[in-house]
Amino acid sequence: MKKMGRKELLRKLQELEFAAVDINLYLDTHPENQQALMDYNSISQQLLEHKQIFEMNYGPLINFGFSPSKYPWAWVNEPWPWQE
User: Which residues form the Protein CotJB domain (predicted)?
Assistant: First the structure.
Protein backbone atom coordinates (compact mmCIF):
# COMPACT_ATOMS: atom_id res chain seq x y z
CA MET A 1 0.00 0.00 0.00
CA LYS A 2 1.40 3.38 -0.94
CA LYS A 3 1.95 5.97 1.78
CA MET A 4 -1.01 8.35 2.02
CA GLY A 5 -1.31 11.75 3.61
CA ARG A 6 -3.97 12.59 6.20
CA LYS A 7 -6.54 13.98 3.73
CA GLU A 8 -5.99 11.18 1.24
CA LEU A 9 -6.35 8.56 3.97
CA LEU A 10 -9.58 10.16 5.26
CA ARG A 11 -10.97 10.15 1.70
CA LYS A 12 -10.07 6.46 1.32
CA LEU A 13 -11.82 5.68 4.62
CA GLN A 14 -14.95 7.46 3.37
CA GLU A 15 -14.87 5.49 0.12
CA LEU A 16 -14.43 2.16 1.90
CA GLU A 17 -17.16 2.93 4.45
CA PHE A 18 -19.57 3.87 1.65
CA ALA A 19 -18.79 0.65 -0.23
CA ALA A 20 -19.19 -1.44 2.95
CA VAL A 21 -22.62 0.08 3.69
CA ASP A 22 -23.69 -0.31 0.06
CA ILE A 23 -22.74 -3.99 -0.11
CA ASN A 24 -24.22 -4.57 3.35
CA LEU A 25 -27.58 -3.26 2.12
CA TYR A 26 -27.33 -5.44 -0.99
CA LEU A 27 -26.58 -8.51 1.13
CA ASP A 28 -29.68 -7.81 3.24
CA THR A 29 -31.77 -8.66 0.17
CA HIS A 30 -29.36 -11.11 -1.50
CA PRO A 31 -27.88 -13.16 1.37
CA GLU A 32 -26.98 -16.08 -0.92
CA ASN A 33 -24.70 -13.99 -3.19
CA GLN A 34 -21.30 -15.45 -2.39
CA GLN A 35 -19.36 -12.96 -4.55
CA ALA A 36 -21.00 -10.01 -2.79
CA LEU A 37 -20.13 -11.55 0.57
CA MET A 38 -16.51 -12.02 -0.53
CA ASP A 39 -16.43 -8.38 -1.70
CA TYR A 40 -17.92 -7.23 1.61
CA ASN A 41 -15.33 -9.16 3.61
CA SER A 42 -12.50 -7.80 1.47
CA ILE A 43 -13.70 -4.21 1.85
CA SER A 44 -14.21 -4.70 5.59
CA GLN A 45 -10.62 -5.92 5.93
CA GLN A 46 -9.29 -2.98 3.91
CA LEU A 47 -11.35 -0.59 6.04
CA LEU A 48 -9.94 -2.06 9.25
CA GLU A 49 -6.38 -1.81 7.92
CA HIS A 50 -6.82 1.80 6.78
CA LYS A 51 -8.39 2.78 10.13
CA GLN A 52 -5.45 1.26 11.96
CA ILE A 53 -2.96 3.12 9.76
CA PHE A 54 -4.82 6.40 10.25
CA GLU A 55 -5.02 6.00 14.03
CA MET A 56 -1.33 5.04 14.32
CA ASN A 57 -0.33 8.18 12.42
CA TYR A 58 -2.99 10.76 13.27
CA GLY A 59 -4.82 9.65 16.41
CA PRO A 60 -8.20 8.07 17.12
CA LEU A 61 -11.15 8.40 14.76
CA ILE A 62 -13.82 7.67 17.38
CA ASN A 63 -13.82 7.68 21.15
CA PHE A 64 -15.63 5.95 24.02
CA GLY A 65 -13.55 2.79 23.97
CA PHE A 66 -13.54 2.06 20.25
CA SER A 67 -10.11 3.52 19.47
CA PRO A 68 -7.20 3.21 21.88
CA SER A 69 -4.99 6.27 22.32
CA LYS A 70 -1.24 6.59 22.60
CA TYR A 71 0.25 8.78 25.33
CA PRO A 72 -0.49 11.61 25.69
CA TRP A 73 -4.26 11.50 25.23
CA ALA A 74 -4.72 12.26 21.54
CA TRP A 75 -8.47 12.76 21.21
CA VAL A 76 -8.23 16.52 21.70
CA ASN A 77 -5.60 17.05 18.99
CA GLU A 78 -6.70 19.14 16.03
CA PRO A 79 -7.73 19.30 13.31
CA TRP A 80 -10.74 17.05 13.81
CA PRO A 81 -11.52 14.78 10.83
CA TRP A 82 -14.61 16.83 9.87
CA GLN A 83 -12.68 20.13 9.99
CA GLU A 84 -10.76 19.27 6.84
Answer: 8-83
The answer to whether the bond into 60 is cis (omega within 30° of 0) is no
Q: Are 25 and 52 in contact (CB under 8 A)?
A: no
Q: What is the mean pLDDT of the chain?
A: 85
Closest CA to 82 of 51, 57, 61: 61
**Cα separation, 37 vs 16, whole angstroms:** 15
> pLDDT tens digits for 57-79?
888 887 766 666 666 666 666 66
CA gap 41, 27 in Å, rounded: 12
Whether 58 contacts 69, CB under 8 Å? no
